[in-house]
Automatic annotation (TrEMBL):
It is found in: Cell membrane; Membrane. Keywords: ATP synthesis, Cell membrane, CF(1), Hydrogen ion transport, Ion transport, Membrane, Transport. The gene is atpH. Belongs to the ATPase delta chain family. This is ATP synthase subunit delta.
């Protein structure tokens, strides 16, 4: 998002945080569903999207238009939160859509946090992403843009039945629908990061040839927490191809100490002689 859009989103996100304090998880879940239904409407209706982000109209005018379209169709809390979004300045209609979708997802995560489930939801999303990435046939089936979302969602629901919380399945459905315009696996990764961020944590993606022990994982997490100044969720991927050592990615930072990297560097150096 550009600066104006980020500021508008920040104001609405702060209102969301104020709303969820003291709210019941079920009420927050309903509000989240309403906000995401507005995002789906904005995706389907580009003219409405443009009208609600039109810089030539005042924020009050845009909020009034939103209320005229959605009053009685979504809850008052969701209407107020989306109204806070459309009252702000948006650099492009697409950024209003992204902001609405992000706010809905943040509301889902907030509801899970209130219910004391957010850590488990983060774990379940990551593990499901690992299963998908490690099974090419499954990855192709769930990522196929030509297959209807409902068909792919039915497959995901079958895989998750009895193994994950309902909110995890809901978020997987959002990933299948292309949350933020991302691929399915990319959307899952982003959801893991947003869940960690709501818990005031950073995610470290660790690739190793063999699983780290609990003690090794804790030591690595402690070192990374000291570097980044906040708690770190260590997410392991086991890949025998790296041969040994550890690769760690935190945001845009990559620390690659794998044997495979060193072998590749040696091979490249020899090829230049």
């Amino acid at each position: 998002m550009q600066a104006a859009s980020r500021e508008s989103y920040k104001i609405a996100a702060e209102r969301l945080d104020a709303y969820v304090r003291g709210a019941e998880p079920s009420a927050v879940a309903t509000t989240a569903d309403d906000i995401l239904s507005v995002a789906a409407l904005l995706r389907r209706e580009p003219r409405l999207r443009r009208a609600l982000s039109d810089p030539a109209r005042s924020g009050e005018d845009r909020a009034g238009l939103l209320e005229s379209v959605l009053s009685g169709k979504i809850g008052a809390d969701a209407l107020a939160l989306v109204g806070a979004l459309v009252s702000g300045r948006w650099s492009a209609p697409s950024e209003l859509l992204d902001g609405t979708e992000r706010l809905g997802i943040e509301a889902v995560l907030a509801g899970a946090d209130i219910a004391g489930e957010l850590g488990e939801v983060e774990d379940e999303l990551f593990r499901f992403g690992q299963v998908v990435s490690g099974t090419p046939e499954l990855s192709n089936a769930l990522s196929d843009p030509m297959a209807p979302v409902q068909q792919r969602a039915a497959l995901a629901d079958e895989l998750l039945a009895g193994k994950a919380r309902p909110v995890t399945g809901y978020l997987v459905g959002a990933a299948l629908a292309g949350f933020g315009g991302r691929s399915f696996v990319g959307a899952l990764t982003r959801l893991v990061e947003l869940a960690a961020d709501r818990r005031d944590r950073q995610v470290a993606y660790v690739t190793v040839a063999a699983p780290l022990s609990d003690e090794e994982e804790q030591r690595l997490g402690a070192r990374l927490s000291a570097i980044y100044g906040r708690e770190v969720s260590v997410r392991q991927t086991v890949n025998p191809d790296v041969l040994g050592g550890v690769s760690v990615r935190v945001g845009s930072d990559l620390y690659d100490g794998t044997v495979l990297r060193r072998l590749n560097e040696t091979r490249n150096a020899l090829a230049k002689r």
